[in-house]
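Q: What does the predicted 3D structure of Dihydrodipicolinate synthase family protein look like?
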Amino acid sequence: MRIDFTGVFPALTTKFTPQDTLDLAMFGLNLEAQIDAGVNGVIIGGSLGEASTLTLAEKETLIKYSVEKSGGRIPVLLNIAEGSTREAVKQARLAEEWGADGLMLLPPMRYKSDHRETVTFFKTIAGATPLQVMIYNNPVDYKIEVTLEMFEELVELANIEAVKESTRDVSNVTRLINRFGSRLKILCGVDTIALEELLMGASGWVGGLVGAFPAETVAIYKLAKAGRIEEALEIHRWFLPLLELDIHPKLVQYIKLAEVVVGLGTEHVRAPRLPLTGKEREDILEVIRQGVASRPVLTEYAY
């Protein structure tokens, strides 16, 4: 299925049972809620999906299940975050076999590669597959910035089509557009500044809190792109305290707790992460409960 890299792409959490196995029933419930809300694709095994703790067999199960469950209604992407180029290439080829429509690629894990190494890493993986590729640029968390000069070399490969822009610098959207025009689709990867980046020309939003609030996320996107800025702002201002849960080291636990409150997930995480307890859990619950209690009535917007 062809990916347009336009719209809302949830980075789905991976649901686990109390026995630390995949909870496909709850995963499927959340996936269906995303599709019903009008998302444009889903990303499996991202940072929010606890990629570093998933086995290859679990990634296969999640991709095959997502492809079957979605039934061609939306594209399914696999995130690849590996320290070894060989393993990343292997997973890219397997993703195609499993039925994935595209890939999101992180730079090398656990090694701070330089310009030449980073470009070679990405080009080697993208060159090993016909699948469409989105580069994940997150120097804040992963310590490697994919610079404009790197992208000049990366766009030599036709299947490198998009960037998940997570530098947290809104101006980088304009820099990318000024340099590459429409050659690269830009999707904001930081929930708190997604509206700003959409207004600056980003084509999409790779969301975190969308896992718990898919309809509100889609509404902001559609209103912003329709030029109905005041209406988008109204929802965004309600949403911001919740969106800030996305920019914390415990974003997985925080967003999973939000999914529990709205009936779209479980709190189970995989070690070394641990479930929230005590005052921290109560503080995050209060933020979520306040948001749910004041949730906007979206039918008023007719977006």
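A (community wiki): The structure tokens above were generated from the sequence. The beta strands are 7-10, 42-44, 76-80, 102-105, 132-137, 160-165, 185-188, 204-207. Residues 278-293 form the longest helix (16 residues).
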